[in-house]
Amino acid sequence: MNITRRAARAVIVATATAGLAAAGLSAQANDPAPAADPVRQELPLPAERVLRLYVPGSEALYAMQDAGYDFTGDFQRLPDGILVDALVTEEQLAGLAGFGAAVAGESAPAALTATPSAPAARSVAPTAAADADTVVIGRVDWFTTKGQGFLSVEVKSDALQEAALTLDWDGGSVEIEPYIDSGEYLYHRVLTRVDGPRPDTITVTSSLGGTATAEVTDWLHATDSDIDRPGYEYGFIDGYLNPTQVYERLEALHEAHPGVTEIVELPNRTNGYRRLSQALFGTANDSRVGVDSRAWGHEGGNEVSVELRAPGVASSALDVTVDGDAVTVHLATDAAGAVTSTAAQVVAALNAEAGSLVRAYTYRGNAGAGVVAAAAPTLLSDNLAAPPSISRDPFPIRALRIGNHRDGSRPGVLIIAQDHARERVTPLVALEAAERLLANRDNDRTTRRILENVDILIVPSNNPDGGHYNFFDRTGQRRNMTNHCPITGSADVLARGNWGVDLNRNYRVGSALDGYDGASFSCTSDTYMGPDKLSEPEARNIVWLADTYDNLKFFMTVHSSGGQLFWQPGAYIADGRITTPRPPLRDETYYWEMAEEILSNVKGLRDTVVQPGNVGGSSDVLYSSAGNVREDLYFNYGIYAFGWEIGGVQWNPETGEFDSGGGFIPEWDEANLQYQEYASGVIEMFEIAMAYGQDQRPATTRLVQERQADGTVHVTFDPSEPASIHYTTDGSTPTTDSPVYEAPAMREPGEVIEVSATTTFRWISVDVKGQLENAKRFTVRVR
């Protein structure tokens, strides 16, 4: 990952001035000598770097998040833990052992590549058939990238991780490792390189005697990618853009295409790229004094100076004088001329005498009983480095609405990007999608059909304050800039690089307040959920869009940089791994169908494959993210809501390994390809929405029966499109309240119903648009 750091400025503790008496001078505390010019000294942010870490499990991961460790989306589960990239300081590195974590490769597993085709190393004799476990194969996906073939297989044993499973195909054999999360067995899975031709079938054998065979299916397919159409224009952006530039470009697109666009100003402005000016005096915690300006830094706070002056005379009283923006604290002394003012006394005096200009406090709730040290005149500073062209005021977030019919009569799609400030490629994905629609409306038939049939809203940067801070101050910034730390906590200058709310933990479903894991209550954690649900204006804006535009049916939030595409469930309670509700089989099937279409279009630019193991419920393929936006929109509004971690790995034929996607801020050559290929996926979402709107036919469902050797019949349902199937077996007429046909477990097809006596099934189905299939019936006869 290529995360670099700009020089940062901040206020540090000033050194004590020499006493006036030592200089041979005498003065009264209320009759100060001329002050020296105030200084603004430098305090760089702690150095951070991205490292691959081994973490022993989810419990340790969430404990580390609470402690301030900052994990990325580049994530891989192992049988005994997790490999994950993290942005860490030297202090955090030193604390890894306390969580049982380590840098990958240093007494910990290194990053894994796809398992090569090779004979399985494990040799365990199967037990007797009577004791055999049941093996159920879930997904068997074949894909190629850069000329190399791969198999991705998911399979379950009812013996859980006690079963040692082996995958065999014509030409190869590998072990399949168990996938365990938060102490819970989910399934076995493997991604293996195949050096021969595509196999037609695979067999999985268990050490406990179970076995199963399944057909291989193709993951992703050749498609008429948007960029392949004759005359199609794409690739409009030639460098990274800060949020001000992003929104200037959004406004320019509207001005150039007023007939098919409008600007929607969202009701809640951000809290602004702004901070109070601050300084912290002293070195020992009990004698430290923190001082904040009352005014924002750019509104005068940066002009305020504070001096802690030792008067150099005996028996002087504590006093504070204010001359314009200059505050001088005349410290009290004893009969020998030594300073006696404590931090608590100085704080009280400052607040009483200079309270209209500054607010003072002891260090992080300390009683402040220590004697303070004198300090030279020191300018308070907000330490923000952006040029004056970047407004410090609350930022007006806008959506670009695109379409010929922006009246709610067409299905709506909402795209948001850059919830997390450092993910600089993501706003370019959103902008590129808008640019393509507007540039190709006259020369591309599909684009014209999208504009005629879809109502599109694009919010290219949902965290402009954090985005500006990322560009000009700290490249590791994830959250917005709002300080919710109490004055008795980490509200001082030493912590202000760690303020802010993780906007994708600030929503209402599966929140940390409801007991779900993956968000923090610590105001300096990178997954801080905020003081309450929807505390942040940025989150309230997205909910406002869902409340206002009831035609919204599809949603994509664009993140980086792990190469995943996911949906619900997004959060779980780690103890027992209790997830938010899983989507019904209908919606799960629809998500998978949409995902394959979206990712097939992504593949068109440079053969990038988002692996099937990185697709699905985000709590299954990534980790728990309590209070995320996707679940709020899906569960509260019925919107099909995707999350996207762009910038996944690329297969390198020369090394035979997967290369990193470049991190949050990849070199431009890589970023240029990333925003273009993933914008193609967004364009495909618009085509999916168009197909949804034009679908006027309900699903048709057939009953499939397979006779078994023991005389029973296995029954499944096969709908022509994703649909909820409601059935009865007691002769009653089915309704939408009748039992629904579901998957028996995560990432599995529909259940198998075992019939041992002649039974009449009656059923109806309801597709994703709510269209109802006429009732059907079929009698399954058991001989």
From TrEMBL:
Keyword Hydrolase: yes
SUPFAM superfamilies named among the record's database cross-references: Zn-dependent exopeptidases
Entry's Gene Ontology cellular component terms: extracellular space
GO terms for biological process, alphabetical: proteolysis
Signal peptide annotation: 1-29
Family matches, as Gene3D superfamilies: Zn peptidases (3.40.630.10)
Name of this protein: Peptidase M14 domain-containing protein
Origin species: Jiangella mangrovi
Lineage: Bacteria, Bacillati, Actinomycetota, Actinomycetes, Jiangellales
